[in-house]
Write a structure and sequence with these properties.
The protein is an alpha/beta fold. The protein folds into four domains: 115 residues, P-loop containing nucleotide triphosphate hydrolases (Rossmann fold); 59 residues, no CATH class; 30 residues, no CATH class; 187 residues, no CATH class. The protein contains 16 helices and ten strands. β2, α2 and β3 form a beta-alpha-beta unit. α13 packs across α16. The radius of gyration is 30 Å and the shape is extended. The two termini are 55 Å apart.
Length: 408
């Protein structure tokens, strides 16, 4: 392959295989003389470095190192196909076609994103000559290959991720050079909005309309609205301290997802869309989600505090008590072990904290361990500790509803 002159603008060239990526790079940049062309495939080099050099405007957090230059052309496998902001670029080229057309759409989505400064972005596919179909019967072979996969894993198998499932019509549309039809197949997939793109929407709003950005940033908690949507149900955003959860519910008010890209995709809309009236019973559903979140937050906080607060001596005591409980058949002894485990799992005073360490160092177990712990329990009146405010953990973060929306 002779080196061809490259036009203005940036180019992102995708191929499925690392060997092909290396081949393209070596022919586009013989001897590696050009510093503005790079290649990347899984495990090859730093993804963040390549992305930062190729799209510095879309990734302003990247800092160029001494001697580094901006990249104009990148050859990549699908290691760059998802979840990255590459909208400095205005051209993608698919050197070979992935068997899943949705993957091709994802590749194009790296440059066709919020924040692009290009009026036109282009995607190019390298297609085989359809004229040889008559001799090679590629259409028939493709159909047979799809059927082989179905026969192997079953028509209704859920082994493949939804984004990886075969779509025969879309596959044929690409092969027959009907690339314009790809949009209708993309609509069949569930809408998702990755965090990178969501953050870019906010960055763009802050740059272009600071007053609106500030208004949104200072909205009170608990706001609610409704919006027309093909996906019926509602969404709720809950927070307790630093713990946050997004909940997406279906028409039956059952939680169907907490996946952030899926929830963001369901609630995404334009700035001109007006809010709709809330349906009957909306508040009761939201409060049910809130109660569930509150229990989860409480359990999460308790686990976190217990994990952080337990000393090595406490961990030793609790571990040995669990072993002893498993081999004990006497019900009274099991009840005593349960009481001691509860006492030593909670916060303990400095005086008691010193006691388990000698037990751990001397590897005291079994009945001897039980006797020593029982002595400490009665000697320090540990039964009453959970009612003493001074020994409780810090205040629990208060759960709240940040916002919610009915999908109508």
């Amino acid at each position: 392959m002779a080196e061809a002159p490259l036009k203005e603008g940036k180019r992102l060239i995708f191929t499925q295989y690392a060997d092909t990526a290396r081949y393209l790079f070596e022919n586009l940049n013989p001897g590696g003389k050009r510093e503005d062309i790079e290649v990347i495939y899984s495990g090859d080099k730093s993804k963040a470095r390549v992305v930062g050099r190729f799209a510095p405007k879309a990734n302003p957090e990247y800092r160029f190192q001494a001697g580094e230059s901006e990249l104009m052309t990148v050859v990549a496998t699908d290691v760059l196909a998802e979840g990255l902001n590459l909208q400095d670029c205005d051209k993608t080229l698919n050197y070979d076609l992935h068997w899943n057309p949705v993957r091709l759409i994802q590749r194009f989505g790296r440059i066709d994103r919020i924040g692009s400064e290009h009026n036109v972005v282009c995607g190019f596919n390298f297609l085989p000559e359809t004229g040889i179909e008559r001799n090679l019967r590629l259409h028939e072979k493709l159909h047979n290959r799809i059927q082989e996969i179905h026969d192997t894993i079953g028509e209704d198998s859920a082994i493949l991720d939804p984004t990886e499932r075969l779509n025969e019509e879309a596959m044929y549309a690409i092969y027959e050079k009907k690339a314009g039809q790809l949009g209708m197949f993309e609509d069949e997939e569930e809408a998702v909005l990755d965090l990178n793109e969501a953050e870019e929407i906010l960055r763009q709003l802050r740059r272009e309309n600071l007053s609106e950005y500030d208004r949104i940033a200072n909205l009170r908690d608990g706001i609610r609205t409704g919006k027309p949507s093909s996906q019926k149900g509602l969404y709720v955003f809950c927070q307790a301290g630093r713990y946050q959860q997004l909940f997406l519910l279906d028409e039956q008010s059952e939680i169907v997802s907490r996946d952030i890209p899926r929830v963001l995709g369901a609630i995404k809309c334009g700035p001109d869309l007006s809010g709709a009236a809330l349906p009957a019973g909306y508040n009761s559903v939201v409060m049910r989600v809130m109660r569930q979140f509150s229990e989860e937050a409480k359990h999460r906080q308790a686990e976190r505090e217990h994990t952080l607060s337990l000393t090595h001596g406490q961990r030793y005591v609790l571990r040995k008590l669990r072993v002893l409980f498993g081999v004990t058949t006497d019900e009274d002894a099991k009840a005593q072990i349960n009481i001691l485990e509860k006492a030593f799992r909670g916060p303990i005073t400095t005086a008691v904290n010193r006691e388990p360490n000698p037990l751990r160092r001397n590897s005291v177990t079994g009945e001897d361990l039980l006797k020593n712990l029982a002595r400490l329990y009665h000697q320090h009146d540990m039964r009453d500790w959970m009612d003493r405010p001074g020994l409780r953990f810090g205040d629990q973060p208060i759960p709240k509803i940040v916002c919610s929306e009915a999908l109508l």
